Amino acid sequence: MEQTAKLIVDGKTYELPIVVGTEGERGIDISRLRQETGLITLDPGYANTGSCKSGITFMDGEKGILRYRGIPIEQLAEHSTFTETAYLLLNGELPTREQLTNFSILLNDHSLVHEDMREFFENFPRRAHPMGILSSMVNALRAFYPQLPESSEDENVNVMSTRLLSKVRTMAAMSYKISKGHKVVYPRHDLTYAANFLNMMFDSPVLPYRIDEVLVEGLNVFWILHADHEQNCSTAAVRLVGSARVNLYAAISSGISALWGPLHGGANQAVVEMLKEIQANNGDVKPFIKRAKDKKDPFRLMGFGHRVYKTYDPRARIMKKVCDKVLNRLKQKDELLDIAGKLEEIALKDPYFIDHNLYPNVDFYTGIFLQALGIPINMFTVMFAIGRLPGWISQWRESIDDPQWKLHRPRQIYTGSKERDYVPMKDRNSSKGKP
Ligand code: SDX
Asked: For ligand 1, which residues put their CB under 6 angstroms from it?
């Protein structure tokens, strides 16, 4: 029996269908609301609005659950690799050994960047933020690889998806080397996805990079944790821009731009900057907790809070263990990790954070891990973007195949001036208009 919701407007009752998801979550289908009632809904920030049905990622914010294609994130972090998890997200199933080998070969075949693109990198100002460079260069890929698929089943999409996954990793490392005026290191066919990235970032003619399996494992877990997260801000941007039927590169470029924001993917950089500020303040976290609670102060505790998780972000819990393991391996003691632990301990006992359901999110510990790898702070969000790529591509592919696909075009409630006439310049009174 279909469940419905009753809406009474001006004495008239309307029945709206209720959609029930795999895990029992429910939504009121308002796709015919305006047609039947003349009304729209209003939901700033879409906190209560679902934009689509999706079979890719499931999150339960109250229970702190995250699953990719039904598999818990904890199991993927423990047993999988980023390449295998990317295949799972893109294709819906874990690969057979043969499928994984072929996927890895495709990734390797597409790991080089067109030599003409190097000039683009070389002509960005040295201080250009890597996220701005990455967003521009991903968009530029369209110029170098113009053949585009008509539908998501097209073999071209597989090639285009693996091309993006592979080239974005190479572009990130190339951008870093060029920004430092160092020799670009090319990808090697004998290295795995994560090992190749670390080698491209840190190998040099004078000091060959020694690949450490614990760091490679940590980077795989980091990217697995970031691979998808249902309809977050940047994924929503990819779907929205993609709904205009632009090419994948343009849609992904919009996702990179959205991720750059400090309230979203830029938070990992903001967390380390905040921890360094606390460190410079003799490690005293109390003034920062006080500021975070002060309504008059725009300061927020970076790495805390989440639109969906109203409990501990399962990814933060895993990331904390990765930090400990990697710092132990490197025999590094990072005071920032101690400060983060102190901040978390005090905040989680504070009524303000408890009442607002504010817990550490994925970004709270990731910056400390990336710093331990030697990744420069302005590349932290680029690392997030590389991880999120399989999610963005999967969501884009699902959206273009969605039988209910529509151009994303929200409505609004108008609150501006009522109708009024044009005023000739000679009759305008400057004190009325804007200065
Ligand atoms: C990511 O969506 C995703 O899935 C994102 C992500 C992914 O994988 O894609 O998980 C990645 O973006 C993680 C979030 C990283 N951002 C930060 O760490 C920045 C700091 N956090 C916040 O700014 C905030 O928590 C958000 C933006 C993450 C979520 O905010 P919401 O859901 O829009 O909630 P809100 O801004 O309406 O805040 C609700 C209340 C407010 O207080 P009241 O006015 O109700 O009294 O909680 C307070 C806020 O002031 N609050 C905080 C806070 N976060 C929310 N107060 C202090 N510090 C904070 N961090």
From this structure: 229, 232-233, 263-265, 267, 292, 300-308, 356, 358, 361-363
